[in-house]
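I hope you will forgive my troubling you with a question about protein structure. I am sending you one protein, given as its amino acid sequence and as whole-number tokens for its backbone shapes. Thank you for your consideration; the sequence and its tokens are set out here:
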Amino acid sequence: MSKLFSRDSWAEIIEALSSNWFRTLLTAFGVMWGIFILVILLAAGNGLENGVKQGFDGMATNSMFMWAQTASKPYKGLPKGRRYNFKTGDVEAIKQNVPNLRFVSPRNQLGGFRGSNNVVRGLKTGAYNVYGDYPEIIQQQPMDITSGRFLNYSDINDKRKVAVIGEGVRTGLYETGEEVVGSYLKINGVNFMVIGTYKKKSQNGDAEEAQKEIFVPFTAFSQAFNMGDRVGWMAITAQDGSSITQLKEQVFDVVKSRHSIHPEDSRAVGNFDLFEEYSKINGLFIALNFVAYFVGILVLLSGIIGISNIMLIVVKERTKEIGIRRALGATPWSIRAQILLESIFLTIISGMAGIVFASFVLVLVNFAMDGMDTSEMMFLNPSVNIGVVLIALTILIISGLLAGLIPAQTAIKVKPVEALRAD
């Protein structure tokens, strides 16, 4: 073994591969390109995953949003097609009857898409989404308070007419540099004092609209706009270790029971399961990684075939040399090991060149993105971790062995007498 890794062995490897530089470089390019494609595809998939998950940053992904629809089946003498509304009592009933829930946040809303102007400040007016919420909503949806504070339970208990406005509302209703906290807005004719401003990420790709929202206490909203005990919809979050997807049927059962809805009526309660959608996204990226490995290894395989072919040619060119070595007592193992070592050496050198080239490209891409606002981008920090590099190296070593296997077997079949007669 020591002889195998001696200076003479390495000199022989270098001489064999450098005897025809152009041929060796063309062969090595196939492996280099295969590893380059593999690393770039994995990095691109990672960058896409980072960008998509950035949109969920700070958001309670183990959540669902639920709203009342119409009953699609008759039940207990009540007709199908009837409308109903959630009530504040439903919130407490859900909390008491469904275990492992972290938040159950009722919400009411004014305004919305294509709504009319509903907010006035002095001579300025605007159409904005106005939400009646509980303080927990800030833990369920990402939001950065840029001045003042968010809603608290004192606001809820005292039914304070206070509001937290988005930076888009500030821009639309206030002059540049004008003090916002402590000022008053008139929402549908009712005065609310501004106690804070926020900025948040878009959840649907419209960053500008995400800043044009106003949050007021749920209780003050219900009182000011005559909502009574009605609830427009709810944001429900499960505790860590539990899945809202598994718990939501229990939530629906509580609501159906309280509103005399048929237990098998699947259309009466509308919902958007964020956890389910988030799980699908995770599954998508697992599939993308599989595709990246599959495509990268296929491209790499073409390079390995090229190396195997070049090693067969090298063995043929060195037939007389191999014969002489066999005649002088070289064992089949030493001949086989020499050919395998040459194959592995060429594979690893070309593969490492591919990794270095791919790393250089990724550094350039990340450098270009450093000066860009990536907060709303679907692509962020394309990179690969050390584990991927180790996997690539493992693939290279195995590939080198496979590439040299056939040429090595061919080499040990050379008979010394016939080899010495060869031209």
Observations:
- The mean pLDDT is 82.
- The CA atoms of residues 133 and 406 lie 71 Å apart.
